[in-house]
Amino acid sequence: MADTKREIERKYEGPPAGGDAPLPDLTDVPGVSRVIDKGVAELDATYYDTADQRLATAFLTLRRRTGGDDAGWHLKLPVSEGVRDEIRAPLSDTVPEELTALVRSRIREAELVPVVRLLSARDISHLVDASGTLLAEVSVDRVRAERLSGGAGSTEWTEIEVELADDGDPAFLDKVEKKLRKAGLKRSASASKLAKALDDTAPRKSAHPEKAERAEKAGKAEKGGKAGATDKVADASKATATAAKPGPPESAPHTAGDHVLAYVRTQRDAIVELDPAVRRDVPDSVHRMRVATRRLRSTFRSYGKIFDRTVTDPIGVELKWLAAELGVDRDQEVLTEHLTATLDELPSDLVSGPVQARVSAWSGARRSGSRQRLIAVLDGKRYLDLLTALDTLVAGPPLLEAAAKKPEKVISKAVRKDFKKVAGLVGEALELPPGSERDLTMHDARKKAKRTRYAAEAATPALGKPAADLVKSMKSLQTLLGDHQDSVMVRGALRELATEAHEAGENAFTYGVLYGRQEQRAAAVEAALPGEWEPIEDKGAV
Questions:
Q1: Are 63 and 116 within 8 A, CB to CB?
Q2: Sequence-ordered strand ranges (E) for 81-177
Q3: Which contacts qualify for 283-289: CB closer than 8 Å, 24 or more apart?
């Protein structure tokens, strides 16, 4: 069973391997009472990655390590600068499946192979306060790295690592760094030991890359000239690998296609990066991934003059499927939260019968065990194929003629088109009498407001403040209309609950009271809609 540890640390460059590390006396660091020598640990770590280093280029590390007090398999996931989540699993001869699953969105079907072996002599010291509480662990690591695949040779260096104690104050690391800098140490230029090892032992680039390229093309010609199925598979794999690699800084977007593609890329990256968090059931991760899928689908539909929809529509179908799978239990959870909150607000003299128990039973009966189902979806071929399709699209976008035009005209036209649909639906809703037809129209308006918001988000870098203002307006409208839709859904649930209670011989009075309150809630939203919409309509789109 894997467990997780939040790791907050900083690395500093030491002298060449074999030299004495200039580690200063740290007892005068504010808060430190003693520096306790914990001895030297001999560590032996083998790092695993794909042949094209998809984990390393995404700043993920996967290793099998012996020695020290935490021997086992370690997967490190970046959280922010200097902060990583370390997922640990017991020692085994092969990569544990639970860790492989956490990098599935990066590696897809590629094999994990040993790439680097690190042998470290770690001289460990503990910084403790007057009560003996650990503040941080400081280690001087003398490292030897051996390349196992994708390169050759070895390299050696020394580095200093300062890791904050569990639940420690990150500001303490600033105090330690101040002392280390005074001693002449500086932050490591490499993000990790693995990154430095890979850089130092990487194959030398050809002095004549054009000759290598011509040789490769000649080899393909000898095999038959035209690319066959094998070449197409290789091209898809290359797109997946390239998508994970941070290339040189991109130039500022100029065309309409540049701007929209940048937004698409951001949402694709969000899905891939959130995959491990969803598998670990990190709070809000499922919702955030679902939003990213919706943003992508909306973007393809809004900007159909930029992307070839014969390519994007099939991907949109798959995105809709994924969003539905991500929402299997979330919608029921939100509905239950609304019911429970509404019930909690009632005075006790208005609660008749086992209402809370029935709501809990009703909710539990509708839960689908989606946790296991969702993991199966993320491990399934359909999901992985969708990720590969997104990689391929980003690597070779199916752009139409309008994509090459200036964004001010093309993008603003697309946003205005979406806004016009919202305006039509809101106007229609305002003219309808209260009832199911108005409820449905307001729900459609909410969906179109969300789509317009996403279109405006993509447009903001190109159009500036007008697009940013529209994002805020659509978000506000979406929230108001969402409150109305929540009321519609809660009233539907209350009808079901009242029927079940009546059939069980229970008093259904409380469900009627709650239903009436939800009607009032919907009426309040409908009354507020004209005042919310009028300034938005007057201002118009971008």
A1: no
A2: 83-89, 113-128, 134-147, 154-164
A3: 286/326, 286/330, 286/374, 287/330, 289/326
For the chain, the first-to-last Cα distance in angstroms comes to 53
Name the nearest CA neighbour of 164 among 152, 177, 155, 153. 177
Tokens of 98: 């639970």
The whole-angstrom separation of Cα 517 and Cα 350 is 12
pLDDT tens-digit profile, the chain (542 residues):
568 999 999 999 976 555 555 689 999 999 999 999 999 999 999 999 999 999 999 999 999 999 988 999 999 999 998 899 999 999 999 999 999 999 999 999 999 999 999 999 999 999 999 999 999 999 999 999 999 998 889 999 999 999 999 999 999 999 999 999 998 899 999 989 999 999 999 987 655 555 545 545 444 444 444 344 334 434 445 555 555 444 444 567 789 999 999 999 999 999 999 999 999 989 899 999 999 999 999 999 999 999 999 999 999 999 999 999 998 877 888 888 899 999 999 999 999 999 999 999 988 887 766 778 899 999 999 999 999 999 999 999 999 999 999 998 999 999 999 999 999 999 999 999 999 999 999 999 999 999 999 999 999 999 999 999 999 999 999 999 999 999 999 999 999 999 999 999 999 999 999 999 999 999 999 999 999 999 999 888 77
pTM above 0.90, yes or no: no
